[in-house]
Amino acid sequence: MRPRALHWLPLLAMLLAACEFSLAGDVTPPPHAIISGVDSTPVPLEYPPAPADLAAGAAIYAQSCAPCHGASGLGDGSQASMLPVQPAPIGVAERADAASPAAWYQIITQGNLDNFMPPFAGQLDLQQRWDVLAYTLSLSQDPLAAEGGQQLYALHQEVIEAALPLADIRQMAAYSRNDIIGAIEQAVPSLASAELLALGSYVQAISLGSQPLASASGGEVAATGALRGRVQDGTDGELPPGLQVTLFGYEGQTLVHTQTTEVGLDGRFAFDEVPAAEGRTFFASVDYLGLSYFSEFLNEGQTEFSQPITIYETTTDTSQLAVERLTLILEFERPGFVRVVQQYLVSNIGQRAVTPTVEGAPVLFYDLPDGASDLAFSEGVFRERYLPTEQGFGDLRAVLPGLQTYQLLFAYEMPYTRSLDLPLALNLPVRSVAVLVQDSDVRLNNSDFTEVGEQQIQNVSYRAYVSNQTYSAGDTAELQLRGRNPQGGVGLQAVLASDGVIVGLAALTLAVGLAWLWLRRVQTSPDEIVAQIARLDERFEAGDVAQNQYKRQRAALKAQLRRMMKKQ
Fold first, then answer.
1. Which residue, 79, 96, 277, 323, could crosslink 67 as a Cys pair with Cβ 3.0–4.6 Å?
2. CA distances (Å), 341 to each of 6, 28, 143, 414, 426, in order?
3. What DSSP line would sit under 395-437, residue for residue?
């Protein structure tokens, strides 16, 4: 196999995972780094446990929103031109005035696939979503007008509080800025239009619990002083003595400050006399049992890490791992070949980080079919993070406990003219498989896959299929492709030669997102898991499965069954 760089894959990987990336700014953690995070699960409308923090929201916006929406929210971010639709100009006052915080919270949480807006429920916790919401609304405020709004509020506070339920975020979240202005106008009819606008912005800000923009971001940045946080053990709750935590300060991609301190017996740590500067970003890390665990990032004005750095004990037992979903994209780049892109999302249902059995050995193994060539990865380097094996390659990265804490995207080419039986050797249990095939004469001919629709993307059609069964570790799912190779139809190589490469890839992401929505309709039931256990027992008794493999598969299935029963 001949490895090569694949420049389009990093963006595709980010988008395929619905923006499941860390909030680490421009700083790239080491290869074995694990960013603390939360599960990627959309949630209904919920309300913040604390007042919104504009500084925290600004940091999140700069990393996760500005690349598309722009620094000022005008829809002119660095990635805006790469998308099929222009990002919403959320910083324009007319749009922000008409939007309720509740409506924008739902979009931040659940996304909007029609406009290529990914969900952030899995990347930002409840408080962070309200923080970035409050900051987003502040983009359309005039700082000078905000100061005037504060003065007007002091003059008419009693009347305004009688007209609006300012202390109840559940009610105020439904009020747009226009709604607030209308209520104030009725309560204080003597105010001019400019005064109403200023007062409406200020009242909306305090209803979210945040300070107005003028007091939050004006003036010189004060010295950070001290940064504080906490470390916790996610396995048994018992922190080992002598842990050390290191603080890193970056300006852009340049490391400008480091500081190390010990973690207390209660898990708390503090860095004193930390120098501050405009645009400086801080994060902390803890090394434990050969793994590096990272905090979220702090920006100007923030003094405490809101989420603890969670460390874990380790195990070499991979039976607690399962592939939540496996997605394949099949494209025809050139005559005689098909390009196969595979994405794995793996969950660790145990309480320990899974590490290699031998130092320097891979944790997870991936088999490649005979004839595979031109292997490429979305991140990491072949023969560094990925080691070659007789069947394919292995990945050195550990797998943290939690849902979909590990993802891998890679691609290769296979010879193809009119038919191909593409074997997928599955070394872990797989809950669901989705396949997207560039539309042509080629069809997926498997009876255990269901065709769920067609997507027209940048004048190229893709047929989507989903599996109607789950797979055990050791199984092989053979994809039966039948039909004539389009012989020069638009594929990734042809797209790469044009200016619309990212546009096409972003559009392709939508198809994968929709395929996952379809996929969720065929989730495995507890009865199906019980049936899988019974079939596995029969295969073991018949001598078709080795004892060690049988025990691992049975334990993984039982763990999956227990998790399902708990949810019910």
1. 79
2. 11, 24, 48, 11, 16
3. E---B-SEEEEEEEEEEEEEE-SSEEEEEEE-SS-BS-EEEEE
State both tokens at 372: 């595979």
Grouping H, G, I as helix, E, B as strand and the rest as coil, residue 379 is: coil
Do the Cβ atoms of 304 and 286 come closer than 8 Å?
A: no
Cα–Cα distances in angstroms (integers) from residue 522 to residues 16, 167, 557, 566, 567, in the given order: 20, 44, 18, 19, 17
Tokens 């446990």 belong to residue: 49
Rg value, the chain, Cα: 26
Q: How many CB atoms lie within 10 A of CB 553?
A: 23
Residues recorded for the chain: 568
| Separation between Cα atoms, residue 375 and residue 377, nearest integer Å | 7
8 A C-beta contact, residue 63 and residue 483: no
- The two counts, helices (H) then strands (E), for the chain are 15, 23
pTM above 0.70, yes or no: no
Span 510-557, pLDDT tens digits: 444 433 333 333 344 566 677 777 777 777 787 766 666 566 566 666
| Phi, psi (deg, nearest 5) at residue 10 | -60, -45
DSSP type of residue 253: T
Strands of 476-482's sheet in order across: 419-425, 476-482, 443-444
